[in-house]
Amino acid sequence: MKKTVSIIVIATMIVGLFAFTACTPGDVETPLTTYDIKATLDVDGMTVTAEESVNYVNETDSELSSVYFHLYPSAFREGAKYAPVADSHVSDAYPIGVDYGGITVSTVAVNGKSCEWSIGGEDQDVLMVNGLTLLPGDSVDIDMAFTLDLPLARHRFGYHNGIVNLGNWYPVACMYEDGAFRTDPYYSSGDPFYSGLADYTVSLTAPTGWNVAGTGSVSTSINGDQTTTTFTASGVRDFAMTASDKYTCLEEQTEKGVTVRYYYAQDQNAEAHLKTCVDAVNTFSELFGDYAYDSLSVALTPFLYGGMEYPQMVFVSNGLTGDLLEEAIIHEIAHQWWYAGVGNDQINDAWMDEGLAEYSTTLFYENNPDYGVDAKDRIADAMQSYVLFTEAYEEHIGGDTSMNRRLCDYFSQTDYSFHTYVKGSLLFDSVRHTVGDEEFFSALKTYYKTYCGKIASDEELIACFENVCDMSLKSFFESWINGTVGLY
Ligand SMILES: [Zn+2]
């Protein structure tokens, strides 16, 4: 995700085909979990009805008696314990006042038969399919039907001004770690999502004339006044769509044949923004390693923050203009390397993908001087704003400046943003100056190549830099990650 942070904020704050051929480890023998979802959008009622068939593969070393799924849309219901929007951003998210939505699961079956299932979790946001005997490497067919009630909201899940966002919208399997499923709720800070690679076939039927952008390769089938858009994607961590009868789509190929699509309802500079998308894919492919998929869709959507990353799909706020819009596009595309490619625990280690995505944005400008943004100035601004932030933070609030806090342990969105994006980008710039350019970019390439298609821990990231640079860097990294107020 990209939030817009600036010194001004501080002043006011004191208050498919190529799927993973580039990077899937060649020794993966176990097939991935597959999702087959058929959904229909009712644009009058702003609801979605869907049937989801999951072939869940037990990729753990444990015998499982249950499989858990996140029900993220539950966070949008009235009375949710964890609202998906911080109080400070309610008016941005809900332009005509708070509107509720949610998900209702009506049926669940295992291998075609009725089964034990219930909804629980910390916030009634986890579907638990019980009574299974699933050995390591075995799989089970889980079929479910559900309906979605979309809120009128400028958020990952919702609609506004005829544009529908379907991000984190379907039951998605929880990660299984240390003998238990991860059931982290929908925190309002950061991107509280964490899921494993899977293969997807998803169709959305909507009125003819509605254009749908989503994760993966796309085809359409028109049946009178209804059109079904079908996406297929292999080896992706998540699946997202956005739909509108207002979308225009521009398309261009990158130097290495990646199809980049840019969707917008209103944009006077659409051609230039498509070029920025293509330039970003080209630049990051050169700096870090080839983009892992054959296509990328970028859509201007109603969104309260700068943007939101999904595999092969990027939401960028249609409320942005000028430099902020350009920056958001670049930042979100960088997440195709740092999140979609190399995964990390976004709940506990958000600095890993956000710090790299934000520093990658600076690297983009450094490598594309025609854009007229001085990379050194960008780093200097980040440093200045972070120092101002920490001074204000210490004087008025005090507290923790570590970067490895759980999302719910940041005291505000601003606290989260300054530590994961701003301090995160400064950390990587500092590492670069410590080890030198050649070693730094070699380490980033190795990190991408080694962990693309996997989840990297903070320790693995540090070890990767230590190995490539042949330097002891652990205490250096940790002084930043665990750091106290004031960098220098
Ligand atoms: Zn981000």
Could you list some keywords that capture this structure?
5-stranded mixed sheet, 29% helix, binds zinc ion, 8-stranded mixed sheet, 488 residues, 10 helices, Immunoglobulin-like, Neutral Protease, domain 2
Derived from helix and strand composition plus strand pairing, the structural class reads: alpha+beta
Uncertain regions spanning at least 5 consecutive residues = 6-22
Number of helices: 10
- Which architecture name of the domain at 33-196 does CATH use? Sandwich
Question: What hetero molecules are in the model?
Answer: zinc ion
Strands, count: 23
- End-to-end Cα distance: 28 Å
| Biggest sheet overview | 8 strands, mixed
Looking at the structure, what is the overall shape? Answer: globular
Query: Would you state the CATH class of the domain at 33-196?
Result: Mainly Beta
At CATH level 3, the topology of the domain at 33-196 is: Immunoglobulin-like
Main sheet strand line-up: 5-4-8-2-1-14-17-16
Radius of gyration over C-alpha positions, nearest whole angstrom: 22 Å
The overall pLDDT, averaged over residues, is 92
> Percent of residues in helical segments?
25-40%
Portion of residues in beta strands equals 25-35%
